[in-house]
Write a structure and sequence with these properties.
single chain, 182 residues, alpha+beta, minor pseudopilin epsh fold, four-stranded antiparallel beta sheet
């Protein structure tokens, strides 16, 4: 008796393989619950950890240009005020003084023997968060634009964090940025 082709042992093993694909023993069965989209807590925490490491590396690089720009802005204002004092002395033919105490600055001119505020006392540090220092807190320009109360030159230093800028005022009345290496 010839065996029917469907009743051969090869046919039985093929059918057994087909039915085994859906069995739990094969590992191919879909969970009973439907899989939801989204991330696991481990994945989210890993990404947050990586982002915090990257920010810790990158954040100081953003602070440095800001400090540099702030120091530059403050030193530009300081230079403008020094040039204003010098120009006022020359224009009026009377001494004009630049005063700096702490971070407060003012300019006075001599009028009939008494000082008059040309620029009222103002502070640079609240707006720009800079520190200023000078060996000579008062710089007086005479009617010819020369500095009359220093012997050679004076440095005014503006700083914030690791950034600093130096303004030099010479006895001849020159106001120069980037130090006193004249």
């Amino acid at each position: 008796m010839n065996a029917h082709p469907l009743h051969t042992s090869a046919a039985h093993s093929a059918v057994a393989r087909e039915s085994a694909k859906g069995s739990p023993a094969s590992g191919c069965v879909e969970n009973a619950r439907t899989r939801r989209g989204g991330f696991t807590a481990v994945e989210v925490l890993t990404v947050l950890g990586l982002m915090s490491v990257v920010m810790a590396i990158v954040a100081p690089r953003f602070a440095q240009p800001r400090a540099k720009a702030t120091v530059h802005a403050a030193s530009s204002q300081l230079m403008a005020l020094l040039e204003t004092a010098r120009a006022a002395a020359v224009r009026r033919g009377q001494p004009a003084s630049f005063h700096m105490w702490g971070s407060q600055i003012s300019i006075t001119v001599d009028q009939n023997g008494s000082p008059v505020n040309l620029v009222a006392p103002m502070r640079l540090d609240p707006a720009l968060s800079v520190q200023m220092a000078s060996a000579a807190p008062d710089i007086t320009f005479n009617a010819r634009g020369f500095v009359s109360n220093i012997t050679s030159q004076v440095s005014l230093i503006v700083s914030r964090d690791a950034e600093s800028d130096t303004i030099c005022v010479t006895r001849g009345g020159a106001i120069v940025r980037r130090g006193c290496g004249l």
